[in-house]
Amino acid sequence: EDQVTQSPEALRLQEGESSSLNCSYTVSGLRGLFWYRQDPGKGPEFLFTLYSAGEEKEKERLKATLTKKESFLHITAPKPEDSATYLCAVQALFSGGYNKLIFGAGTRLAVHP
Amino acid sequence: NAGVTQTPKFQVLKTGQSMTLQCAQDMNHNSMYWYRQDPGMGLRLIYYSASEGTTDKGEVPNGYNVSRLNKREFSLRLESAAPSQTSVYFCASSAVAEQYFGPGTRLTVT
Q: B43, B49, B57: best mutation site toward chain A, by most A Cβ within 10 Å?
């Protein structure tokens, strides 16, 4: 069964304390892995797409990496404004030929000054 | 560009009432989606529309119907609301791979 698991569920960091969020997946026929940021009361905001093992993408203090079984979202020297829930999703081929997204439950990140 | 817009932002219904959630996108995307988000669970797909004129069931379609009115608009209807449908509903659209989400509708069914 296609599945996405994110860990930890919640993470508390001090400003400047670097860390990583994990997204492990089991899916037949991975077509892409996506990272989103979601602020309270808002819709998910697209961050990155990764397509193949070894690929890396960067945006400001965030770097996403991909292996054959998992992805990491590395946060370097985080600031309080990085506080949000980070969602991981994998794209797989659905039976009807549609590429569906399967979402993990997310990691709630809180960065304190 | 407004991106993906949803109305209403909040709604309270009584069990058995009906309502329609509206979604519109101005990015000229072919595909549109409806998800629900519940605490501790990932976003779950209710229905999707791969292109104008087509709709298909997702993971949790029971109790919902959809209409792809035109390329821009995709509505979600609850015919007889139940407390289990209390959730936050998100509409999304995509051109190829990345999906772009609206701000959500918070629905409470009492």
A: B43
